[in-house]
Amino acid sequence: MLSAESFWASSLRQLPDGERVTRILSMAINSIDPGLAVRRDVQREGDLLTVAGRVYDLSFFHRVVLLGMGKASVSMSEALANILADRLYEGLIVSKQAPLDSHPPVDIMVGGHPIPDERSLEAGKKAIELVSSLGPNDLLFCLISGGASALVAAPVSGISLADIQSLTSALLACGARIDEINALRRRLDLLKGGGVVKLSSGATIVSLILSDVVGNSLEAIASGPTAPDPASRVHSLSVLAKYGLENSIPTSILFSIKTSPETLKPGDPLFANVQNVIVGGNLQAAQAALTQAQLEGFHPYLLTVELQGEASQVAFELATVVRQASITGDPVPVPSCIVAGGETTVTLNGNGKGGRNTELALAAVTELADFPGVMFITLATDGEDGPTDAAGAVVTGDTFRRAAALGLEPGVFLERNDSYTFFSALGDLIKTGPTGTNGNDLVFMFTY
Length: 448
Fold this sequence. Notes:
By secondary structure, the protein is α/β, with parallel strands linked by helices. The chain folds into two domains: 4-31 and 283-447, 3-Layer(aba) Sandwich (glycerate kinase, domain 1), CATH 3.40.1480; 34-280, Rossmann fold. 38% of the residues lie in helices and 20% in strands. The protein contains 17 helices and 15 strands. Strands 6-5-4-7-8-9 form a six-stranded parallel beta sheet, sandwiched between helices.
């Protein structure tokens, strides 16, 4: 559980409302604690295990096996392992960071993120070995969370790790949405797009899923290892065409997409023994933040949990909302806490340091320049904004002036995608460290 002090940044320390704001931020993250999320939906009485209303008799199964994949998989798996106790036969967890202690009979591996690496390949091999050993009398629990698409990689025949790395880098740089990226991944990986189901030889599967995607689409979360893939081959090719990538990615990728067998589709009988349960996500985090905001004396308002688009454009739209709220009290009176959730994208034009959350904040600096009584905070719920150690950043009406005093021009830093450097100079990066959960991104807009 993260304390409010984990969110301190320079501007928050200087404002009278800083402590109240940090309590709101910490509540948002702590509300999607992976272990608590699992325990809410899974209860056991003797050999009867109830998962989101469906009952499983553990004595019926020959083996009960666990496969955890994603940034939140360690905490999720620990919670489930404690519930299953003596009934857990074996398991595998693949995460971005390894815990300090071991968890027998569960093996723990680390994969590469956001670009898969050799560790991801090894994790993919181990996952395939585990799942392929199952049969109709076995029960497989999958603990799925964001990041799994890169952490675990099992490319189809003819596709190399270098091919996948090249494609992933190109998609991240061009500003593709995560659902578009994962639509391609599902066609190129043996574990994705229902691949775990296909490999499990009729085992009963229960997937507990912490969502990090807009709309909670099962096929998009971690590229849908236990979900059918509704996207067609044509859709995958259209994603490449949309971003002009057909001639810049490895030819093996194009050949595989055009010629490989179709992924498993909705209605396929292989999913008859699969239960997919979303145990938490962005909406839950946003609602918890708003509940705390009301306790702290702010008028709460949920703007959306479907935030998407280029970060710089989204910043303009959100800044307009908070300015209007400050001036007119619409859509919520002052003092207010307006929350938006989702995931923006960034088209890389420069070689600076940053992620989508700090870029979103940077683009809001000019929009809120010299505008009193407002605050704009971005936050990656996993604590890691892109390839950085920051979760997000804080912007106030005074940020532009403070930056100018240091010779920092927001537009210049925005052009080179160097948001991390900008906010680091101001002391306004939020650095929680890895939170152990992943419920997508949040934006908090305050009027006071």
